[in-house]
Amino acid sequence: MTGFAGFGDAAVEFYDGLLADNTKAYWTDHREVYETQVKAPMLTLLADLEPEFGPAKLFRPYRDVRFAKDRSPYKTHCGATVGPNYVQVGPDGLMAAAGYYQMASDQVTRFRTAVDDDLRGADLVARLAAVRAAGVTVGGEQLRTRPRGVAADHPRLDLLRHRSLYGWRSWPPDDVLHEAGTLPRVATAWRARLPLTEWLADHVGPTEQPRR
Known about the structure:
The protein is an alpha+beta fold. It is 44% helix and 15% strand.
């Protein structure tokens, strides 16, 4: 099996077209482009990343529109996870992320308990500084006001407002997207986020709530 050599030359153009015409007719007419220039390279990329980062999962290209106002049937990017990390390619190019994009209520509780603790909270602040210094953007959903019971002058109030926390980096469409250089791009970005993902794994962990 050959290693990852880049996404196809028509990968971005395929998603540009899907943005303009998100219909079954467009998908059917261009499915071969998706299969050969998006899906196949992504599967090879994931296989090359799995030994270092963990099991991979490629997401389906179809949107779940059962409860959505937007009834367009297809996702306008190709996304996948490798261990706790995420990668996607689409009309805007490449994006690599890691962390907790969504946290269940029990995870939020554990997260805030750890952030409130002086030792663990200060450790997270230092780790986030290192992540940002490596060129990673830190984001996440936040409450507009402070959580109930938290003092207005808490030294880590901004972090306590988070309901999710992750780091990400993106690259616009360029020549590297279609070359083997995409692989070290993604791997380097994920390694830079290790201080954050390790802290989340140690102090928050997966949800313990049963799936509905």
